[in-house]
Amino acid sequence: MAHIIVTEPGQVSVAVPLRDGLRAGRHERNDLVLADHRVSRQQIEFSRTPAGWRVKDLRSTHGTFVNGGRIEESHELTDGDRIQVGSVLITFIEAEVTQQIVHEQLTSAAIPSQPDDGANRRLRLVYEVSRAIGALENEDELLGRMLEAILDVLDCDRALVGLTSGPEGSLRRVVRSRKTAAAEEIVLSRAMVEAILQRRQGVILRNAGGRETPHTLVREHILSAMGAPLLVGSRLLGLLYVDDRARVDRFSPQDLEFLTSLGHLTAAALEGAERLRSATAMAEALGAGGPTDDLIGASPPMLQLKAQLHKYGAASANVLIRGESGTGKELIAHLLHTLSPRAAQPFITLNCAAIPESMIESELFGYVKGAFTGAIRDKRGKFTLADRGTLFLDEIGDLDLAAQAKLLRALQEGEIQPLGAEKTHRVNVRVVSATHKDLVKEIAARRFREDLYYRLNVIEVETPPLREREGDLELLAQALLQSSASSADKRLEGFTPAALAALRRHPWPGNVRELRNEMERAAINADGPLVDFTDLSPRLRSASAETPAAPSAGATLAERFGQLDVLERQLVEEALRTARGNLSEASRLLGITRIMLKRRVDRFGLNARDD
Ligand SMILES: Nc1ncnc2c1ncn2[C@@H]1O[C@H](COP(=O)(O)OP(=O)(O)OP(=O)(O)O)[C@@H](O)[C@H]1O
């Protein structure tokens, strides 16, 4: 049954099963009462549709938002949708949950004081879990408390939460055991973990000892085990696992159903906490300014990127930066170094695509005199030069397999051996690498080593392309123009509307690098004070699909002259669209008088309004 997870500020998250016609609002007659002054008395209604579920806004005063956007009237829900009303967050979950548990949870304001039978102990656990993770402060400690409660209720030996946020693709674990006070090492069955994570379903081991029992469980003397995924929407955060060494068939299908419900609840709370952390980091990043000020951009993906840089700069883990060409990968690698404790040490760059295969090893590790013909003196490699600092490996996807094997060894052992040297020596290097290639595809095509990928990609950062960064184009164009103008010793104030429109129309496949080149050119061409359409490159003046085709060379003079009308009409239409039909505003955009524009509007029979 589908359900919603309701998170009110300062309250525990509560899971509520959905039913057709369920209403939420401030009035106490609602099925779900939301005590928030920005929620209307009747705010929203959920209804079933042939395709699934829909949420309808009941003409609320402050509106209903789904995934950040205000809904017009109603919205078809998909798994994981986040509905915001006032300060209340409601997450829609399509997956199955145990109705009994979630329903009881909804109606219990406090721990129930009924006889302590199995069902009530479970209910109490759900309550405890909600309370613990709702107040999420120290994640590990609270997950630990939840696991202790699970051990108690399910009466089994050991319990574990494995989070996929662990280093290098491994699971970060929180473990509790009934027998030992110390956190016991739990060896998980790979087959079970894969089944849970890949199928995204709960798995239960019954008849342990049978021929199909996974080897690890037999070796570890585990007689019963079960696990469930931590899923929120389509996002997999890890798994919940319990086992027992005393009894066979310890867990029933109802136990698994119960564990699965807890998995949903835990995942929703963990994700909520993660969002809070990233919002806090973003706020800190925005307030902090500092080195990331060099990274121009205020669009949501750029703000997120800046927050990530502040968060990851201080870590010493390796970082892989992915992104299209010209999106600022090198700039970001340098910022990661500047923000790190290694900032006072060297930042060394190697472009793997620019070095011939035969030389890559000596570039990376260096050589000693006499190592090969022409090695007339010792040469230090990039690893040695970057010792205690950062090594930036650009275009890592272009490294050949032989060099990948050597790089992997250096990263695994923290030691390098220059060509021809007898001994290895230790180096302490943080590797930041970058690529525009999809390394997962490269791994599948056997062109990139998977083990190296995990070594490099402890933290992954993605640089967004310019076309996805709404509003950044203008910011970047202005800043890059100013820096080019001052190098050319000119004073330029900005752009004419026609130049700006051409900049906005262009798709910028070469991203910021292409824009920087364009601004250098414009600064040279422009006589000032504004850069005009004619100062831009021919590519910008003619490449856009919306720009009318240049008059064809073979046409007569009269035909070509006639085509001017087409261009003029398109520009007038565009200006009117931008100015929402306002004549004065549109004439200002076109740089002509209002009367001149009115004459053209009449000639083309267009609609416009007087101010
Ligand atoms: N957000 C930004 N703010 C200011 N300048 C930027 C920004 N992004 C990129 N640049 C500038 O654009 C140019 C290209 O950036 P950079 O060389 O870092 O891109 P890249 O992703 O490493 O490209 P490639 O993959 O082709 O090597 C540089 O001059 C860089 O300083």
Automatic annotation (TrEMBL):
Sigma-54 factor interaction domain location: 295-524
Stretches assigned to the FHA domain: 22-71
Gene Ontology BP annotations: regulation of DNA-templated transcription
SMART domains documented for this protein: AAA (SM00382), FHA (SM00240), GAF (SM00065)
Keywords: ATP-binding, DNA-binding, Nucleotide-binding, Transcription, Transcription regulation
Pfam families xrefs: AAA_lid_14, FHA, GAF, HTH_8, Sigma54_activat
Molecular function, one GO term: ATP binding
Keyword ATP-binding carried by entry: yes
Gene3D superfamilies reported for this sequence: 1.10.8.60, 2.60.200.20, 3.30.450.40, Homeodomain-like, P-loop containing nucleotide triphosphate hydrolases
Record-linked InterPro entries: AAA+_ATPase, AAA_lid_NorR, FHA_dom, GAF, GAF-like_dom_sf, Homeodomain-like_sf, HTH_Fis, P-loop_NTPase
Protein name: Two component, sigma54 specific, transcriptional regulator, Fis family
Source organism per UniProt: Chondromyces apiculatus DSM 436
